[in-house]
Prior knowledge:
heterodimer; A: mainly alpha; elongated; B: mainly alpha; MetI-like fold
Amino acid sequence: MRRRLALVVLVALIIAAAFAPLLTASPPDALNLADRRSPPSTVHWFGTDDLGRDIFSRALFGARVSLAVGLLSAAVAGLIGVAIGAASGLLGGHVDAVLMRATDAALSMPRLLLLMVAAAILNPSIGVLVLLVGLVGWMETARVTRAAFLATRESEFVLAARALGASSWRLVTAHLLPMAAPAIAVSTTLAVGRGILLESTLSFFGVGVQPPAASWGNMLYQAQSTMSTEPWLALFPGACIFVTAVAINVLGERA
Amino acid sequence: MANLIIRRIVAAIPLLLLLSIAVFGLLQLVPGGPLAVYLSNPDVRPEDLERLRRSLGLDQPVWLQYVRWLRGFVSGDWGYSFSNGQPVLERVIERLPASVELVAASVVVAVAVTLPLGIVPAIDRRPLVRSLASTLSFAGISLPVFWFGLVLQLVFALSLGLLPSSGRTSPGDGGLLDRVSHVILPATMLGLVHAAAWSRYLRAAVADARTQPFVKAAAARGASRRTILWRHTVRPALLPVVTVVLLDVGLMAAGAVVTESVFAWPGLGSLFTEALARRDYTLLMALLMLASTAVVLFNLLADVCYAIVDPRVRV
């Protein structure tokens, strides 16, 4: 029930983001100096900012950026994680030991701080940002993939396939990966939520998605200084992040 | 026991080396190198730059620079801050107490929230209680921390005026009450997010402990419900949670960057954001290393504590 609700919320968000131009009265970067800093109303559902830009419109267009960064970075993290976890679980021995030490090392890095420094140095485009966020999110997937591989590696149907002369590639693609898929799906789902949170945090510090493009995080970055007079500037984008992250985490919950 | 500790420490060393390579490598990516700030300054002549480069050892191969930097870091010579020329170590020590204070207060808040949120729903199995607790946990792990902080600030400081909105003390004050009132909001922000995760572990651990044979045995011996609950269920359930808590404290120190920036808390976290804004790379490098070391150290501590409370892993 809860998961269905979460799915509905996410699909609605994705559709709204995709059809953002149809759902908004004014483009996200349209200035309207006559209508600055106005609180939420029937015309501007989420209010307007100091340049008279419509926050609802910016939040919807920002959803495109935030969701895209979340989904794509999770895909990057998933690919790296599955590759490392699969190599580790399949090959075992020294390869496994080295890869798992590396995973431990990566897990004990303060990811947020490293990302902030990397983003400050590289001044990333959105594509590079996706790569960066993905690069710090593969560890969980690597671990669950390895665990699933270890659990099924010695099972009888795998031994049978091996005895029939199946290649390693065939073992992985036809037998081990399908068995690991549910665990990989869960950890990748959670990676989407983490990606969205990381992007918004980076943008909040001004090193993520750069204005004038809107993302939920950089809307908050701009809103921070006017919290006391125009709180709606911060409340709505933050609520968007929150709702999305809750929905994703509910969806990824192990049943 | 001593054996185990030594083994863990030895295992932590390559980890730290790997981390130091990552940090050093990252800073090598800075466009223009460490002297980038001077490159655009017309008052700095090329020959001065050359001299500076030689005196800082930047003309040497990268691996040699790395070794020198690492040796310096280990021996406490962390170089000088680019932005104000003060020794990095001095700047870090200046900010350390505020950070420790914040993390300690956050742990207190987090534990105070974790215990009821973890124990009550595992015992009171009414659907309402259970779904309320799990909803709270979900909300907690999904919260964008900085936004949560902004909302706290808006509600409790700016709208209601109950608590100060930023800083560590009011100017001219600094009494205990003043300091406590300043730390409440940032500690809540930093603590609640972790409490959400911790309470999920605790809930699972309590639920698991309830099914153990020793609980049944205690009930069969006629132990009171209270004894069964606290002694035989909660106590063993707390053991694994302690390690999770310790693991997280290291991360909490890193997460404090966000909290300190929202509440203008004068600790290492805001030092980090200042260094980031000024592109003060020597300072950033030291802070990154410090944060990584803290995580590794708390990992180590968690392992050791676990071995103390649970003899089964001491092999």
